[in-house]
Amino acid sequence: MICNHLILIAFQNPTSLTRLSLAEWDVLLRQARRGGLLARLHALLEELDLLEEVPAQPRRHLVWANTIAARHTLAVQWEVAQIRQALSPTGIPLILLKGAAYVMAKLPTARGRIFSDIDIMVPKDRLNEVEAALMLHGWATTHHDTYDQHYYRTWMHELPPMQHIKRMTVLDVHHAILPETTAIHPDPAQLRAAAVRLDASGQIMTLAPVDMVLHSATHLFHDGELEQGLRDLLDIDSLLQHFGSLPSFWTQLIERARELELTRPLFYALRYATLLLHTPVPPTTVSHFDHPNRLLLALMDSLFIRALLPNHASCSDLLTGTARSLLYVRANWLRMPPLLLARHLFHKAFISPKTEHIHTQSDRTVPRQFRDKERVN
């Protein structure tokens, strides 16, 4: 068995894990930890009734990771209840995105998932009302730099992240799934109109199944946040396997991707889910899309296949760092037109560091729990 492929083998063929040596388990656990996948690995082995066949030493790591994931799930459920209470006076339905949606909808995708924030979507014309309601219940905006505030509120698809002043939980309030400066513009009104109720009151909702898949694909292959790329690809794999048996799901997925201008991120999602995780996708599905030309596709394969793996030495080669850097540049290029991007990068490279230094000096007098924390998705 090739060690640098262990994390993929674990999810492609989990029964093979019962034959691993302790040395191989050591490598696999390190890879899984860097990818945020220890608890998910526990959930998979438990589901297949293979956990007891894992040697005691690695099993302890998996069980502990599962305990942490269970606490995360409880925290998400509690936090969603608090957000719903905060927004109740506004009458605005709470549409959950990504991890929180998986938990509250009780999807298999939520098993073993670790969370760093909660994402919700509301109408853009109600953002001020939503922000005010949340602030009354203890959430405060982060990214206090004037430029960052302007950047988020003018160009992005979300408010600056909000953090609760007591619980320190992070909340992202979206009004769309892509920034307004991108070349493609999935209509958020269409996403909200198709949202699915989770309770009788209709106050807690998630995106429709096909939209949930498309949002996950867009987040991974358009936003360029690849630190937890394999975890996000496993989300897509799980969603496709769970919803794939629904009548007309694949036809609806293709039609919806075209309607929302999201065929390219969906193409990449299906391609790398099948290549890396052996996700069962009907053979004719990908043929409906406008493929990248052969040269571009070969380039994207060389980049994404490297960058989607956990950021661990055993998963890397000499080109992995370059691949991650190029995909970071690609994500910014997709996010903004050239002149705006140049202005933004200049500001972040030469002006923001000075401002951050001043804030760091002043933060020394502020209790640690109230300082801004680096956002990790």
Q: What is the top-level CATH class? A: Alpha Beta
Structural class of the secondary elements? alpha/beta
Read across the widest sheet, the strand sequence of neighbours is 3-4-5-2-1-7-6
Tally of DSSP β-strands: 7
Characterize the biggest β-sheet: 7 strands, mixed
Account of the 3D structure:
The chain has 377 residues and is α/β, with parallel strands linked by helices. The protein has one domain (3-355): Beta Polymerase, domain 2 (2-Layer Sandwich). The protein is built from 15 helices and 7 strands. It has helices spanning 6-12, 22-34, 38-47, 56-87, 98-104, 127-136, 146-155, 188-193, 209-221, 229-243, 249-259, 263-277, 294-307, 320-335, 338-363; strands at 94-97, 118-121, 139-141, 162-164, 170-174, 196-197, 204-206. It has a 7-stranded mixed beta sheet, with helices on one face. Strand 6 and strand 7 form a beta hairpin. Helix 9 packs antiparallel against helix 10, helix 9 (209-221) crosses helix 11 and helix 10 packs across helix 12 (263-277). The longest helix has 32 residues, at 56-87. Residues 356-377 have low confidence and may be disordered.
Explain briefly what this protein structure is.
Helix content is 54%, strand content 6%.
Structural topology:
Elements: H1 6-12, H2 22-34, H3 38-47, H4 56-87, E1 94-97, H5 98-104, E2 118-121, H6 127-136, E3 139-141, H7 146-155, E4 162-164, E5 170-174, H8 188-193, E6 196-197, E7 204-206, H9 209-221, H10 229-243, H11 249-259, H12 263-277, H13 294-307, H14 320-335, H15 338-363
Parallel strand pairs: 1-7, 2-5
Antiparallel strand pairs: 1-2, 3-4, 4-5, 6-7
Helix pairs in contact: 2-4, 3-4, 9-10, 9-11, 9-12, 10-12, 13-14
